[in-house]
Amino acid sequence: MKIKITGIGSYIPEKKVSNTDFSNHVFLNEDGTTFGYPNDVVIKKFKSITGIEHRRYADDNLNSSDLAFLASKKAIEDAAIDPETIDYIIFAHNFGDVKHGTSQSDTLPSLATRVKNKLQIKNPRCVAYDILFGCPGWIEGVLQANAYIKSGMAERCLVIGSETLSRVVDDHDRDSMIYSDGAGASIIEASDDEETGLLSYESSTYAMDEANYLFFGKSYNPELDPDTRYIKMHGRKIYEFALTTVPAAMKNCLDKSGVAIDDVKKILIHQANEKMDEAIINRFYKLYDREVPQDIMPMSIHELGNSSVATVPTLFDLLIRNQIKDQTISKGDVLLFASVGGGMNVNAFVYRY
After folding, report:
1. Does residue 133 register a pLDDT over 90?
2. What's the pLDDT at 174?
3. Distance (Å, rounded) from C-alpha 79 to C-alpha 4?
């Protein structure tokens, strides 16, 4: 028995924020000093490294659980199922619901419970819970759904990744331009089809020095309350960590699947940073002494930014709906999903569509 993604949906906020919208921001160094060059130079360099031109922010009246609900409705409709038959709702996020204009995280009740309530699922045996696993959270949710289904504890799961990162960023940190809002949701079910579905997986947590590569820290503006915390990262360390660990995890995962490297049709990787993702893919193919195939890696980061746990399911949703230019997949194609993020966590799975 295998598991299959029988329904997929995403919610992409309508509010588009361009790089030029950051022209008047006061960006500061970590010690609070100003840069020695204007913002247009900062923005140009940022675009060349990350590939991000635009990102999406949620409407002021919507929270992360609202985005998740909207994506979940689409996934349920896509799978054509009765939501009362869902056994588990697994909601991956990092910061809970953060109301616009505030900095406090709200996780009571859990965001999964909020989605169950919004879906009006009456069945008490539909168990709803949240997971905190950094950007790889949606992939980890899929792996947990796989475990539940294969153990006989469930037949059908709703796995969600949703985040409103725009509300936990330090406006004085240029890294704030990376982050965005969005949600992706999927219905995961048992399948007797031995040819398609999830073929193999890999997951790990690196918690020595790597544990603090992503963290909550004070604003770079010394005049602001030091007890108000924002998402921060050691970008260079994350880059080096990802290049070391992610290609190896992808290779281990692919080797376990029995699928040849030349048979991989697409690689859906967390949309964190264009240059980093390209470097990961290059290293991955070098492990097989292969050149990177053209169009192997669909990208959404240019227009949607980095929405953390939402990037991979949203990318998959866009791909299967032919909404990514020059990117298509067909029945039977092999896809390799992979992610890296706070924790530090790395995971991947091979999936035959």
Report:
1. yes
2. 93
3. 11
Other beta carbons less than 10 A from residue 230's beta carbon: 21
Give just the sign of the alpha carbon dihedral 139, 141, 145, 151: positive
- The SS3 of residue 283 is helix
Q: Cα(130)–Cα(137) distance, rounded to whole angstroms?
A: 10
Q: Which one, of 29, 312, 274, 300, lies nearest residue 183 by Cα?
A: 312
- For the chain, the helix, strand and coil percentages under 3-state DSSP, each to the nearest 5: 35, 25, 40
Contact 313, 10 (CB under 8 A): yes
CA 25 to chain centre: 26
DSSP string, 61-124: T--HHHHHHHHHHHHHHHHT--GGG--EEEEE-SS-B--TT----B-SS-HHHHHHHHHT---T
Is the pLDDT reported for residue 194 higher than 90? Answer: no
pLDDT at 1: 78
* Element of type H or E holding 199: strand 197-205
Our measurement of the distance from residue 175's CA atom to the centroid of its chain's CA atoms, rounded to an integer in Å, reads 17
Give the span between the Cα atoms of 75 and 69, in whole angstroms.
10
Of the candidates 331, 337, 330, the residue with the CA atom closest to the CA atom of residue 311:
337
Percent of the chain with pLDDT over 70: 100
CA distance 201 to 204: 11
Say if pTM beats, i.e. exceeds, 0.70. Answer: yes
**Is there a contact between 307 and 165 (Cβ–Cβ < 8 Å)?**
yes
Q: Indicate the SS3 state at residue 128.
A: strand
Residue 102 has pLDDT above 90, yes or no: no
